[in-house]
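Amino Acid Chain and Its Fold in Token Form
===========================================
Purpose: to set a sequence beside its fold so the mapping can be learned.
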Amino acid sequence: MKTIHKVAVNTLIATMLLGLGGCSGMSTQDKNTAIGAGAGALGGAVLTGGSTVGTIGGAAVGGVVGHEISK
């Protein structure tokens, strides 16, 4: 993996972890949606080599899956 991709993935992970700190007032379903979107974005970025479309697509799919799991 190229250095730029490693930096991008590490930045995404750090941002996701810091963002989850603001979830204390969220419902369980909202938390699952956020976690799913973060995990999906990370997975999309890794699978597509850091492609913006892959990252956004992964976030969208992960958010929907996380939202639906809590129902």
In short: The longest helix spans residues 28-47.
